[in-house]
TrEMBL record:
Leading EC class: isomerase
Domain HRDC intervals: 626-706
Catalytic activity: Couples ATP hydrolysis with the unwinding of duplex DNA by translocating in the 3'-5' direction; ATP + H2O = ADP + phosphate + H(+)
Listed Pfam families: HRDC, UvrD-helicase, UvrD_C
Organism, scientific name: Actinoplanes sandaracinus
Database matches in InterPro entries: DExx_box_DNA_helicase_dom_sf, DNA_helicase_UvrD-like_C, DNA_helicase_UvrD/REP, HRDC-like_sf, HRDC_dom, HRDC_dom_sf, P-loop_NTPase, UvrD-like_ATP-bd
EC number: 5.6.2.4
Chain positions recorded as ATP binding sites: 29-36
Protein name: DNA 3'-5' helicase
Keyword terms: ATP-binding, Helicase, Hydrolase, Isomerase, Nucleotide-binding
Domain UvrD-like helicase ATP-binding stretches: 8-289
Amino acid sequence: MRTERVLAGLDPEQRTAVTAPAGPVCILAGAGTGKTRAVTHRIAYRTLAGEISPRHVLAVTFTARAAAEMRTRLTALGTAGVQARTFHAAAMRQVRYFAPRLLDGRRMPELMESKARMVGLAAAKAGVRADRTAARDLAGEIEWAKSSLVEPGEYVVAAAKALREPPHEPARVAEVFAAYESLKRRQGVIDFEDLLRAAVWGIEEHQDVAEQIRAQYRHFVVDEYQDVNPLQQRLLDAWLGGRDDLTVVGDASQTIYSFTGATSAYLIDFPRQRPGAVVVRLVRDYRSTPQVVGLANAVIRQARGTEAKLRLELVGQREPGPEPELKIFPDEPGEAAAVARRCRELIAAGTPASEIAVLFRTNAQSEAYEEALAELEVPYVVRGAERFFERPEVRQAMVAMRAAVRSIPGETPLVEAVVEALAARGWSRDQPPPGGAAREQWEALAALVALAEEYAAEPEILPIGEAGRVQRDVSLAAFNDELIRRAEQQHAPTVAGITLASLHSAKGLEWDAVFLVGLADGTIPTTYAKTAEQLEEERRLLYVGVTRARHLLWLSYGQSRSPGGRTRRPCRFLPQLSRGGSEPRAAEPGRKPDRRRPQISSCRICGATLLAGADRKLGRCPTCPSDLDEDLYERLQVWRANTAAELKVPAYVVFTDATLVAVAERRPADPAQLVAIAGIGARKLGQYGDAVFALVAGASPDDLAQKNFEN
């Protein structure tokens, strides 16, 4: 039968989801567990079994890309004709079709692509000053309110209950909101939330429209159900009209858009709201190696709150891969340089650049990685934002700093001069503004200040021939020239390259190699996350980042933002490697430090913190180049064999292989250098120190054997 072909290759949990009877079905699908496969095969199975007709199915997704993928898979399964659309696309199709009936023969009003311009006009009408950035933030706040079914007169109370941080006083935001709605009506245009509301109104207030839509769509599938907002849920309820043939798919641990009005409450409450619902948990992860899966589980295992009730413990299904690399660097520039070097190595070894991603918490962090990758001529693309030096606020700030050269005294320290120049544009170092767009703009300018701190911290000494050397110019004018150089270097066009993206922009994507960078407290979780719920969302954001990696995963942070800066703590959600360096476990709040653990040491080549025992012994990362003295290594091996035979003990009792490699690489010349090698203490120094120093100095094992014989 054709249905058997649809069931072939499914795991037991997927098969349960696919063959579940008509009615409410909730598929809790962890990252990489094949949720799209499960829902498309469920639709195909029911269709091919004659249970439903494809034309009566409406599958709702959150992106056009996901909808297109769903249609492609259904066609391949022999089930063409299913409507797979986003909420907005489905609503637009219905409103446009029924507009003549709903609007007395008139066509559907024009749909605005963006709220910002209209919000700016509304702000002026309400007497609220709003530049382009403030207008974007006000638009976002209005979008949240409308998605949450909040009217202008209800905004102040609703915002307080939701602990919103609006860009202006709530009462003023409410005034702008009301003026915005009035302007839209006068101009005869609608926004995307109006589109959903119109679809709801058409069904709830017009019985004939409701009957026609419900006769057309009888079976519903909703993807990413943890991201549904109240307005979307109301539209879904209107479509259903009390029926229960609904399949939802979601993962509460990937709830990261609550600031937009999305809520996982509908996913969490699904079994309670729909008695008799079938609940299926997909936990077999086909995307990532067991090592990456283990780390993801360690991150989310400590989660608390409502979403944690539906936490899934993933089980990796792929062949084992490399352990995740956890690295600590002295500062962010050092971190970025190391990431760029590793990316170049991966590409040289055959990993396509398009299969590598560098993910960070905020877009302002991209500059360091753009610079480091450009320096090594590694191609990259920035996803979800402009390149750093292409951002309007950065370009305007650079103009302001060039103008400030004429007004700020030349002896003013560089960082102070940069802060003063930016202050003239209204930027305040200690007062990040409310509102997402304004805060992102503030962070971009803060990144310029960090660049100035980096530039001034370690000025190079430039040779000027035999006359001597001179310190590099660290004036504001020189710094402006440096910014221009960086901007020109980073503007090279690329066809395909490494992806630079924020964690939010990375949702729904995956790569062979993922670098999660800047994992410092204050960045993730962001300093703006103050409530328990906000902190848990930050944890889930890190979890989403970890689960983007298929094979190689690197996690890192710089101890300071710039060289010599204030030391920061690592992300509180960041798992630590166990003593053996293989099994990840999460740090527990309030846990006393394990005094038995060896002190952390740094790679002598790149400066990263070394966590695995073998790496600490070698004094370098396994990926950093070895400077092994092969001749010395051979002499050490012969000497160890002779010594072990003389003492009648196994060779590793004298020195392990890793210790021999470490000695041959580091070539210790005195006791302090020898005991700095992990595993060599005072006892072995006394036993073997003289012999090791002699071998390092060039002696042969035969010379040592003769000397021992004579003694």
